[in-house]
Design brief:
It is found in: Cytoplasm. It contains 10 helices and 12 strands. The protein is of the alpha/beta class and 332 residues long. Strands 3-4-2-1-5-12-11-6-7-10-8-9 form a 12-stranded mixed β-sheet, sandwiched between helices. α2 (91-106) packs across α3 (120-127).
Amino acid sequence: MSKSASTAPIVLSCGEPAGVGPEIAVKAAQALDGSVPFFWLGDPRHLPHGARFAEISDPAEAHHVASGSLAVLRHEFHALATPGVPDFANAQGVIDVLRHAVALVQTGQASALCTAPIHKKVLKDGAGFAYPGHTEFLAHLAGVERVVMMLACPELRVVPVTIHIALRDVPEAFTPELLEETIRITAADLATFWGISAPRIAIAGLNPHAGEGGAMGDEELEWMIPLITRLKGEGFDLKGPMPPDTMFHAAARANYDVALCAYHDQALIPIKTIDFAGGVNVTLGLPFIRTSPDHGTAFDIAGRDKADPTSLIAALKMAHEMSHAKRQKDHG
């Protein structure tokens, strides 16, 4: 899509300044060359030496910076940054940038939020950050109780219904209420942000072979099938529970728009196998668009010009496409 001054640009939060975030932001601006309007919210002192950037005083000015240059809306931090060496003095600045970025999206000055990686332990130790991660903090800022994590690439969208918990805790956490809530949020956001009015949702079984008629587990028979049947009666296009080991090859993927999985690895192994570098983390259930590259701060390679911007570029492109779909939906 071409750059358009009629739409607000995307805000890219700086993330952990000692990580690869500043470096991949510069690389993304060079690669996108103005095709996706965005600006970086952070301290320009944290950008790599010699980086091409242009400071702006208003988000709308991001449309007018030279192609290949990173538009920067200054948000000053307490300290300089040394790549690979996080500084607790900058922890509060990272949190404040996220607050600032959300405010820009909520007021319409930005069309979407793309977040560079943060380091949760640094924020906790340096600023008393009380949230498990980005997603929970953004939900708090938006006043939303329940959000859903989706990983997406051109070939696959997956949603882990339970996320960062031990495998032994999954059967207790994976409840009818949680699965139903996840289905409803996922279907609503695919309609709003992807323009898929009646998304086809595949649901993986919890057990091998989806329980095989109760021989390998009974969750599918006891409550998954009745829940899916009830929601299909409401008009949801649902498939499952499906055997997890046969639903991710190319022919199977052609039959659904998103796959809901019972636990973290059930969802993330297939998408990272299909597109390791290009996967995008999308938060569903927020009142605004939020995407993120699917990797961490990578302190071990920060500042060494080795960081791959592929996932960030994909995240920015996806945020742009989602905002375009939402505009089309809003305007009929």
